Amino acid sequence: MRIIVDAMGSDACPAPDVEGAVLAAREYGDIEITLVGEQSALETELRKHNTLGLQIDILHSDSAVTMEDKPSEVLRTKPDSSMATGLNLVKEGRGDAFITAGNTGAVLAFATLQTLKRMEGVLRPTFPAVIPIPGGNFILADGGGNADCRPEWLVQFGVMCTAYARRVLKKPNPTVALLSNGEEEGKGNELIRKTAVLMEASPLHYIGNIEPKDALRGGADIVIADGLLGNVFLKTLESMATMMFDLLREQLKADTRSKIGGALARPAFRRVYMQVDPFEYGGAPLLGVNGVVIVGHGRSNAKAIKNAINQGRLAAENDILGAIREGMAAVNPTP
Amino acid sequence: MRIIVDAMGSDACPAPDVEGAVLAAREYGDIEITLVGEQSALETELRKHNTLGLQIDILHSDSAVTMEDKPSEVLRTKPDSSMATGLNLVKEGRGDAFITAGNTGAVLAFATLQTLKRMEGVLRPTFPAVIPIPGGNFILADGGGNADCRPEWLVQFGVMCTAYARRVLKKPNPTVALLSNGEEEGKGNELIRKTAVLMEASPLHYIGNIEPKDALRGGADIVIADGLLGNVFLKTLESMATMMFDLLREQLKADTRSKIGGALARPAFRRVYMQVDPFEYGGAPLLGVNGVVIVGHGRSNAKAIKNAINQGRLAAENDILGAIREGMAAVNPTP
Question: Is the pTM of this model over 0.95?
């Protein structure tokens, strides 16, 4: 199996991207890795590591997509980028999965419009987030790409996430819920009520509406929402956690007693942080295109890149695309 | 000025409700308070406090609304409740504001359908939340009553919250933003984009879209969203904060070192909690009905009830209803 890694993706590229690839090649002996990016920079970076016996090669690309690039323009302006080059390798069957910590909008544009394209029967690809919670995780889709959604799209998001949860996260019978302002049937907006009817009729393991507090307690393996609601939910979780850590840090510096207490309790804080560590899962899959794509956070470190590579490896090895195709056939009306 | 307090509202009623009224009567010498509820229970409770010189009287009511009562049924089943009785006093001009920590859905039903009714020109009343953040607060509307909204309703929510922010929270020129998945113009869903056009044309101090992280940093005085998005935002803030405090508490008990650190840092934790204390503002106003109504959380303690009474006092004293009427005239097309 060959994994294609965009080495020009992360904010601090290429260092974490290359190191993550080295760590992955060491840990998962069965994979070959192609790093795509500026040849000499990647060679310099690779020389910093012991790569003896690892199957890592480099494919040169002339340019790189930055976080500032507009997704609507990259197709035209950066066709020779590491991102486009890497996705093309997967499209041509010369790679089994593509990993990047680069500009999410640009990946979506290149993958859905230019290279891999939408899978047959998929109305909208989705870019879910895997959210760490104490003792586990849940998948949230849509993470933001599709602000306005139709009920059928949400059901398809459920199908694709179910395939991902089964094949990659090893949850044999994942539960699916609709994010809402109340658990009771009839709560939510019109979109949620219409989607619930379709969910009930689908083969998904649908368990009804879920409120934020129950989602955080692991009440469902898969939480479905339109991209606006899902994105605001996701960003609220992140920014509330950040705010709380910031407030704590500030107050633990306020006086000597707090400083001593804070120093003693540091391992406890560390354990709290580990339970909501955004880098634990490395990246999020782009589901609904003809290829395996995992997109990591721009702030990814080497560990996050390694974990993203592992997600891509598991997705390819366990034929996530076949699982999605099967799931789609069960919910889409035969033409 | 006379404030009507539903003494059968809070989860632990009537103790915190009565004590809150006593505290308020003591602190704000200019108010008279009528406690509505079960006469003998309230007399017993009042006798526990020194009420010398305070203007507090009791109005008996035969029943009380509970948290389990369905809002759709209370109009029929509990017309003699402390809630209905209290609202009627305000309707008849025998009280200037009504305060309750009772069943929110029931207050909405009694106030909008049976007693005070919608103000002329108001399309939908709204029940915003005042959210404490470090160094201040912001108002979020809609808090949940109106899951599906139209653009004109959202603009009206902005108008009513602007009046409340000016007259009660003493913010002379409050900024209004739309909660969204990105700051840039064009982000958000169709509702947000349509509302933005109306906001731009309104006399509101509209500043565009706002993301959760900037809302938490105090980026806008008033954050507007449909009731589904607003409610999920609100509940996510609450449940993430709760989860973080729970995780901390758990980890600070894990070993001796953490226990000592935690004990020393307790005042620092307390200061963090104070900055996001949900009881600081006591309650949330029901805006858009013909009367001042403040609804507190069911878990309100005496301090929260006292603060809710103060909010009602300020709203009545500063003619919030007049301010809303004026604001409405400026955004509603003349018939």
Answer: no
